[in-house]
Amino acid sequence: MADTTNKTYSRRMNPLLKTNNDTGFGTNAANYGGRFINRDGTFNTRREGIPFINRFSIYHRMLSMSRWKFVGVLFLAYFLINVAYSFVYMLIGTDGLQGIVATTMWGKYKEAFFFSTETFTTVGYGRVNPVSDGANMVAAIEAMSGWLSFALATGLIFGRFARPKAFLLFSDFAVVAPFKGRTALMFRFAPYKDHHTLTDVQIRVNIGFKTIPEGKTEPEYVYYDLNLERTKVESLPLNWTVVHAIDDESPLQGFTQDDMLAADVELYVSIRGFDDVYSNLVQQRTSYTYQEIFFDRKFVPMYRESEDGKTTILELQKLNAYIDLKKS
Question: Distance (Å, rounded) from C-alpha 201 to C-alpha 164?
Fold first, then answer.
């Protein structure tokens, strides 16, 4: 977590508050670095002790990379595979390929390259064809690797399209502001993809921070479930402002901005819902550290009536819009 050397929240906590020991995170404060969960929902951990090749998941990387990177990787792999096969044909000798008319080395290589692409894709236009045993053997292997590669690419493309994903945008920060005569911690999120409406949406928010438990001298991380004004909604066509009232039942009771820094506070957010398009459950995680929690700010409304009065406009550009209560 954050560097809070010589700064540890040590105020006595309400003994009636029940800690959550099922978060999957440990309590040893000395062994953690940075946040527990990244803003994109991935866990902020790095594994060591076994070779990289055993840890690396090609399938996950191909599914999770951006669309343009994915297309670029496919084209690059297609190009490099054919470059490699072209070199093999050149090593065997272009005499094993009938129909080559080029006389220069570069010209022969180009013809071998395009013959490779035709073999790899099983197009086979016919002007250049293998005649030697070596060239026929390489062409047979290339044709097999070609349809296997296209089957693999097809599976990856289907996996990317069919993989359920929650299309949610989260506010860049959480706020602590007045709420119904009390103070509350709030953040908000909204769906941004047309037609991907979520139903039966449920949310769970945990908080973790560093403190010195009673009777101990070394700081530990403790975790609590936060009571929310609302933990589920039947549908999510608009934004949802998540509210945690800071009262006697809140572990944040009495916290100031400096206390959050000293305690290295982090919120863990988990959302689940049913996506009508995928006809499946989707889930998304995120987190807010003490650096992303601001006092005396209030979110502004982010939806309005259309000019003709026939629909409601969700203004996603206002997801992070707020009023500074210190200046108002």
Answer: 15
